[in-house]
Design brief:
This protein has one domain: YwqG-like (Hypothetical protein YwqG fold, Roll). It has 248 residues and is mainly β. The protein is built from 1 helix and 14 strands; from the N terminus they run ββββββββββαββββ. The structure holds zinc ion (2 copies). One zinc ion binds next to strand 7.
Length: 248
């Protein structure tokens, strides 16, 4: 179906497996390569246990990805390390750009060559974190593919043909062509709860694209929403502009 070509986006499925990653490994829920002289991030947003958000809760590592392990179009110039952390409490009234009733996410883009001293013992989270919000240490086994959008994001003329193709390629009723499921970098998001939505950057109005999908699975022990995905969208013009998180 060559008409789909222009809609293809590179993606890397991370395929997490329980393991013992080190600070210089790409990982889910593993130790982060964190500068010893940089404060560890903490969340002071109100949560289910503290309506004041005080004291601030140290965040926990969700993912660390090195460009050497997962090369792709998602790397801005000059950085080769992406770290994702979150506050493992439930936030009913989420701060701006964060998903409701979810952990609060933060990102760090870094140059791994800048490191000298690495933080040894990051602080532990506070309060009663929610089940499903403490990712277990996993190594990743990246798998590259070209991902395609949900058919509603395609011109109507292509949709019936794509539906036929999806049926033919997955006789068990699954879909191995569009919005491939799991922890992934890049690719296309799935929309179970709303119509497809295109985020625009608050700072520069540029398009935002799916950067990273945090999936619910038993390898990582992560469960978000109703066995859903927490997705991070970033500005394609400048990775330092505010990111957007949603839950599906
Ligand atoms: Zn919090
Ligand atoms: Zn922007």
């Amino acid at each position: 179906m060559p008409e789909l070509g222009p809609y293809g986006r590179e993606a890397a499925l991370l395929n997490p497996e329980r393991g013992a990653p080190g600070v210089r490994d790409s990982s889910i829920g593993g130790p982060l390569l964190w500068p010893a002289d940089e404060p560890w991030p903490a969340c002071s947003a109100p949560d289910g246990e503290s309506s004041s958000g005080s004291p601030a809760c140290p965040m926990v590592p969700v993912a660390q990805v090195f460009a050497d392990d997962i090369p792709g179009p998602w790397w801005p110039d000059g950085v080769d390390l992406l770290q994702i952390l979150w506050c493992p409490n439930e936030h009913w009234d989420a701060p701006p750009h964060q998903a409701d009733v979810s952990p609060v996410v933060t990102l760090r883009w870094r140059r791994s060559a800048d490191f000298r001293d690495v933080l040894e013992n990051p602080p532990k989270p506070l309060r009663h974190y929610e089940f499903g919000y403490l990712p277990q240490p996993c190594v990743i086994k990246p798998e590259y593919l070209v991902d395609f959008p949900y058919h509603e994001e395609l011109p109507e003329t292509l949709q019936p043909k794509l539906e036929r193709l999806v049926k033919e390629t997955s006789p068990d009723g699954g879909d191995v062509i569009t919005r491939v499921a799991g922890w992934k970098m890049g690719g296309w998001p799935t929309w179970h709860l709303t119509e497809p939505w295109a985020y625009r950057c608050e700072a520069c109005e540029a398009e935002m694209r799916l950067l990273f999908t945090i999936a619910s699975d038993s390898a990582t022990d992560v469960v978000v929403g109703r066995w859903g995905d927490l997705r991070i969208f970033s500005c394609i013009a400048d990775h330092r502009h505010p990111f957007e998180v949603d839950l599906h």
